[in-house]
Design brief:
By secondary structure, the protein is an alpha/beta fold. About 30% of the residues lie in helices and about 20% in strands. It has 10 helices and 12 strands. About 35% of the residues are buried.
Length: about 260
């Protein structure tokens, strides 16, 4: 969490300033999508999102610094010092998460902002949403980019039956075993399989796939979606072996497998 004189138990204390011309919105937990990379806000987010954002003073965020930067991209006139931020990531005490919804219980809207893409999809924000649902608090998902959904759209694979598997094991023997298990699901269940990897291990992941899966199995590499570095291509394992591989070392990438 950023150092701040007003920081206390994971939040920045709210002040009384408001954005000019803001309108009152319905109290709810708003799931606010974030751009993927340095993409322009106007390119991937509807103007409606901005109208919601400028009327929220409480935000549950994965990282305060990046959340502040995103909010300024949405609206330069936002006064960051008037906002309250609650940090939610792998270091957050699970017992504390429920208290983040206290403003909503008091009739004030709250927004959730993840590091990239849609909150609560492969994201710790799901824990907050689960609590909100259990308390019968209103949850409102806003429109925005999801690399998972967009990669399925662009792959040419089965979009009616697919599964996102998160990260595969790091150790090579376990990783190969996991890949072969996913490959079996492709052929036995007609199910598209998606997974991700830490960017600096992307190249190694591709190598492992090409060395261990069937020649006819199709691999889609969807990298840097919506950014200037966007690269999306589908080929069989055999075709990938004969083609130059893209440099994926520093770019968020979704890997998809299908028959």
């Amino acid at each position: 969490m950023e150092n701040n004189e007003n920081c206390e138990t994971g939040k920045i204390i709210e002040t009384s300033k408001t954005i000019e011309n803001s309108k009152k919105i319905e109290p709810a937990l708003y799931l606010i999508p974030v751009t993927l990379g340095e993409t322009s806000v106007n390119q991937v987010l509807p103007s409606y999102n901005r109208e919601i954002i400028i009327n929220i003073k409480h935000f549950i965020v994965e990282n305060i610094r990046s959340a502040r930067r995103f909010l300024k991209k949405v609206e330069k006139s936002i006064d960051i010092d008037e906002l309250t931020f609650y940090e939610l990531n792998n270091h957050t005490d699970k017992k504390q998460i429920g208290t983040y919804l206290e403003p909503l219980a008091a009739g004030k809207p709250i927004g959730i902002i993840s590091e990239a893409g849609c909150p609560a999809i492969a994201d710790p924000g799901a824990d907050v949403v689960a609590i909100a649902q259990s308390k019968k608090l209103k949850v409102v998902p806003l429109v925005g980019p999801s690399s998972i959904i967009m990669s399925v759209m662009a792959s040419g694979f089965n979009g009616q039956n697919f599964a996102f598997n998160g990260y595969l094991p790091v150790e090579v023997p376990q990783r190969i075993k996991a890949l072969k298990k996913l490959e079996n699901k492709i052929y036995n269940e007609n199910q598209t399989q998606l997974f991700i990897e830490t960017p600096y291990r992307n190249q190694k992941m591709v190598e492992t796939i090409l060395q261990n899966l069937r020649p006819q199995t199709k691999l889609c590499i969807a990298s840097g979606i919506t950014t200037e570095q966007e690269y999306i291509r589908t080929q069989t394992v055999e075709q990938w072996k004969k083609a130059p591989l893209p440099d994926l070392a520093k770019i968020p990438t979704i890997f998809l497998l299908y028959k």
